[in-house]
Write the structure tokens for this entry.
Amino acid sequence: MTDPSALSGEAAAPDAAEDLPATDAAAPTQAAAPRRTTFADLGLSEPVLRAVADAGYLHPTPIQEQAIPIVLMGRDVLGSAQTGTGKTASFTLPMLDIMQSGRARARMPRALILEPTRELAAQVADNFVKYAKYLRFDYALIIGGESMGEQIARLNRGVDVLIATPGRLIDLFERGGLLLNDVRILVIDEADRMLDMGFIPDVERIVSLLPRMRQTLFFSATMPPEIKRLADAFLHNPKQITVAPPATVASTVAQHLALVRAHDKREALRRLLRSEDVRNALVFCNRKRDVEVLCRSLVRHGFNAAMLHGDMTQPRRTETLERFKAGEIRILVCSDVAARGIDIGGLSHVFNFDVPFHAEDYVHRIGRTGRAGLSGRAFTLATVEEDEALAAIERLIGKPIPRIQIDGLDPVSLDVLEPRGRRGRGRGRGARDAAEKPERAAAPPAGTPRPPAAAARTAPPPGPRRAGRARPGDRPRPDPEGEVVGFGGAVPDFMRLPTRKPVRTGRADDEAA
Ligand SMILES: Nc1ncnc2c1ncn2[C@@H]1O[C@H](COP(=O)(O)OP(=O)(O)OP(=O)(O)O)[C@@H](O)[C@H]1O
Ligand SMILES: [Mg+2]
């Protein structure tokens, strides 16, 4: 059972009652604010606390507050909390403390972190460097896309932690460059993604190479029930820590949905990009080739845009992401390679040019903004062809996405277009084909104004699924109780400043996106 205080997303403060003064003569009517938990309360060592303070963190987030003591106790954890609420430090900080006893031996790392993409693995490595600055600590980043030589050399010197994408790790193991019998801690970040179809064989193989006596930690913002069942194979009596119901969208992200005709999508995106106060934005497409086409189109229209997808060489991927983080590129059109875990300080907007095929990806994509307590805005452009995928998302997140109308574009109603748009279409992944075909939309009503600059305005309540179209189970779940604040408590001012440094040169490849 999940602790109700965890569900609320507010930092539990078990010691708060003791901290309240018994009587307060000076302010008898004012209740003293409960003392917020500090990192020192969690049992972390002094060098780690100093590094955390240097990072500017004042208080642990709810997932950190709950997970860190459990990890320090050596227990397995199945941890879920909204995007951008500090899951990385929930496992890296206690790992650093646990690993302070013992020394790394050549080719025998003591901990392993699996990540689904090279960029995310590199980012987690950066986090380790930041948190381990007062410790003697070595890591190796084992990701595809570059020569293995340097990675092997590093392993030979002896590392404490491997941060890896699965494919390259297995390659290296098979070449005899690595022994995994000393691994005492396994972290599977983005666990549901890593236990998704494509990754399962590799993850199973890797886990079979690890000692049975180990600590295993799973983290993700989404934890579908079937993943929990799968996780049972890898975890031993895990402590389940659920800060918010799995797949809860971070409350810091303002969501919007615009129903548009397929041939209006690019125009709709351009209008939003012009009318919104976009500092920097990720624009997600479902297919790599659409990433390229859309990026070229945006550049032609004068936008400062670049692209990121899994078919690019790793040096180009890394360089592009660094330039985006540095603010040299304002709009990054990308595949789902950038959907999980990537932390771009102060990202103002996410646009879904396509409705993602997998509902979980929606939560992760829009979670690239609204991180670390900052607010962000997310816009999804949907055609009637994407109706099924949209319904799946609204079921998952438990509410309808607020509809907007983009000024100057023909209004679209799912009801009006349903007979042509949806009949005979497959469900779920079938939407892949549907989304590819340009919709032959009716001619716009005569006289429809198309002003050059558009502003999105909130559309009348959509009635997310109208009576005639309702299917059992197609309704969004009722709202989870209250708003969940994944960062817990007030947001300190320093967190309103972007804190990211450019990610280090990444190396490699495993992911398909
Ligand atoms: N206690 C804290 N105080 C302030 N900032 C923090 C704290 N913990 C983490 N952060 C910052 O919050 C941001 C998001 O953290 P992180 O990437 O770990 O989120 P996440 O929960 O793993 O998100 P995702 O589900 O997208 O992977 C980072 O920039 C990190 O530096
Ligand atoms: Mg993460």
